[in-house]
Design goal:
The chain is an alpha/beta fold. The protein contains ten helices and five strands; from the N terminus they run E-H-E-H-E-H-E-H-E-H-H-H-H-H-H. The chain has a five-stranded parallel beta sheet, sandwiched between helices.
């Protein structure tokens, strides 16, 4: 059973999401919150698999909620998915840097919404290639972060190659095809790179890849 926490200050929207999720046999909404502070308390209390968090809320916003969840070892199993009305904007970028597993636009179709919840619960990032390209475009104008390079020297050549492919938006199966290895081996390379770079998930691995200079945006 996938345990979900809803955190959004719009009660009507929460009700709609809850009604949709409650129809699924493998998903359970364990709690709802109308602001970020309440959401953090409920995340600690219920330890959901997925926290669907509005990016703009009173008291504590979605970015700070994400940051605090990502920083708390007791909440390591909670995968934050940011909800936004605005598509990919700077707030979403900051949420990904803070540790979000991905983001969803609130007008998403029900089938894609349910699929996204299941993807997040598995620990996979919600970063389609189109979203990754937008991430890359943000980095073209950004300076590299020296502290982001910590751990790069520990990566093997194959791990570096795998990270570069993940940063292009490829799945483990696609990484395996490119590297001519098995999907299991590709997953192992990616997971070891995440551990060495202290990345919470694939979304943060992509961010670190560009911030550290391991991967360069096109035409830089």
């Amino acid at each position: 059973m996938i345990r979900v926490l809803l955190v959004d200050d719009q009660r009507l929207l929460r009700s709609g999401f809850r009604a949709l999720l409650d129809m699924e046999d493998d998903i359970e909404v364990v709690a709802e919150a109308g602001d970020g502070a309440e959401g953090l308390a409920l995340a600690t209390e219920h330890l959901p698999d997925v926290a669907l968090v509005d990016i703009r809320m009173p008291v504590v916003d979605g970015i700070e909620v994400t940051r605090r969840i990502a920083a708390d070892p007791a909440l390591a199993g909670v995968h934050v998915v940011i909800l936004t009305n605005y598509g990919f904007d700077e707030y979403v970028f900051d949420a990904l840097r803070a540790g979000a597993a991905g983001f969803l636009v609130k007008d998403i179709v029900p089938e894609d919404f349910l699929h996204a919840v299941r993807v997040a619960a598995r620990g996979d990032a919600l970063l389609a290639p189109s979203i990754t390209r937008k991430l890359i475009s943000r980095y073209v104008a950004r300076p590299l972060r020296a502290d982001a390079a910590k751990g790069l020297e520990e990566l093997t050549n194959r791990e570096r190659e795998a990270v570069a492919l993940v940063a292009q938006g490829l799945s483990n199966d696609e990484v395996a095809d490119r590297m001519v290895i098995s999907p299991l081996t590709a997953k192992t390379h990616v997971n070891r790179a995440m551990t060495k770079l202290h990345a919470r998930d694939r979304a943060q691995l992509v961010v670190l890849a560009y911030e550290s200079g391991l991967v360069e945006p096109p035409d830089r």
